[in-house]
């Protein structure tokens, strides 16, 4: 393994682990704010910071002429749906369970890419998807009985991320990495601020907007900063080692989530749920391995 590959793997692993730290901070805010308000605040901060940085580094051109605006709006919708769903899920169910279910995203992405982008849906992908969803059912078995359909929130999060990933493929070549991050943050903020306002007027007590204590806002700001830093580290890892090389590092996020949930929230690992998580992770690694094999066997041009 080359030095650049090792550095890339470490950057990516640090980024994925930092995402789990942010997830744990989100869980610590349960009952102190609402998921809709937190999601709107997180992406409003991100939109302001990333847009400002984009103008400073690249001028006003990327802001005045946004490439593929409908695709950028779809990216914002996907990440907005994923964020508010995930925030709600970690407040209602064990952190590790919620994180594990979100790892169905690659399988859902493959299905969406086949439907909307015309990409080939292989039999192996269908089998991996079925195995992954058996894992989801195993994890959901106690949560569904306790909290009902709210237990499906992490699956909705995975769908949102799959929409984002599919739209990312459609938007390839539409600007710099910084511009792409700024566009998705602005799109998410434009969606989530009205959602938070509608939630406030809904009359449902658990999602009515209110200004929390300063320490809750500070933690929300940390979540925004840590997420942006994590995505930057993952981007650095990708540039040094390649997206395919760092892909398995994403599952380090689940290990950190298990450790943090156990240490800070007393959520000891459920062995049956871990079996479900293993099926999901195994399916994802299987798809990754098969994709690597296909690249190796492709004939030279």
From TrEMBL:
Cellular component terms per the entry's GO annotation: membrane
Domain EamA: 7-140, 150-283
Domain of life per record: Bacteria
Localisation per UniProt entry: Membrane
Record's bilayer topology term: Multi-pass membrane protein
Keyword annotations: Membrane, Transmembrane, Transmembrane helix
Transmembrane segments: 40-56, 68-92, 98-116, 123-141, 147-165, 177-197, 217-236, 243-265, 271-288
Pfam family, one: EamA
InterPro entries: EamA_dom, EmrE-like
The family this protein is said to belong to: Belongs to the drug/metabolite transporter (DMT) superfamily. 10 TMS drug/metabolite exporter (DME) (TC 2.A.7.3) family.
Name the record gives this protein: EamA domain-containing protein
Source organism of the structure: Aurantiacibacter marinus
Lineage: Bacteria, Pseudomonadati, Pseudomonadota, Alphaproteobacteria, Sphingomonadales
């Amino acid at each position: 393994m080359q030095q650049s590959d090792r550095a890339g793997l470490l950057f990516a692993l640090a980024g994925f682990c930092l995402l789990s730290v942010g997830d744990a901070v989100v869980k610590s805010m349960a009952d102190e704010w609402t998921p809709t308000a937190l999601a709107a605040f997180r992406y409003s901060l991100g939109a302001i910071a990333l847009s400002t940085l984009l103008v400073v580094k690249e001028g006003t051109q990327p802001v005045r002429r946004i490439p593929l605006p409908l695709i950028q709006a779809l990216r914002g919708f996907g990440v907005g749906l994923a964020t508010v769903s995930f925030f709600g899920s970690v407040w209602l169910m064990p952190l590790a369970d919620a994180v594990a279910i979100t790892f169905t995203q690659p399988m859902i992405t493959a299905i969406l890419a086949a439907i909307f982008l015309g990409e080939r849906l292989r039999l192996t992908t269908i089998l991996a998807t079925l195995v992954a969803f058996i894992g989801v059912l195993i994890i959901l078995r106690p949560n569904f009985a306790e909290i009902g359909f709210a237990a499906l929130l992490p699956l909705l999060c995975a769908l949102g991320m799959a929409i984002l990933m599919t739209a990312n493929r459609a938007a390839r070549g539409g600007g710099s990495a910084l511009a792409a991050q700024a566009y998705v943050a602005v799109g998410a903020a434009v969606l989530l601020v009205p959602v938070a306002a509608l939630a406030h007027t809904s009359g449902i007590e658990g999602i009515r907007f209110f200004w929390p204590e300063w320490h809750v806002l500070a933690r929300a700001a940390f979540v925004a900063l840590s997420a942006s830093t994590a995505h930057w580290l993952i981007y650095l890892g990708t540039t040094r080692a390649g997206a395919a090389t760092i892909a398995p590092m994403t599952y380090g996020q689940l290990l950190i989530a298990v450790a943090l949930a156990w240490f800070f929230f007393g959520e000891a690992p459920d062995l049956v749920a871990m079996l479900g998580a293993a099926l999901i992770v195994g399916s994802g690694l299987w798809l990754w391995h098969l994709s690597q094999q296909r690249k190796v066997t492709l004939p030279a041009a």
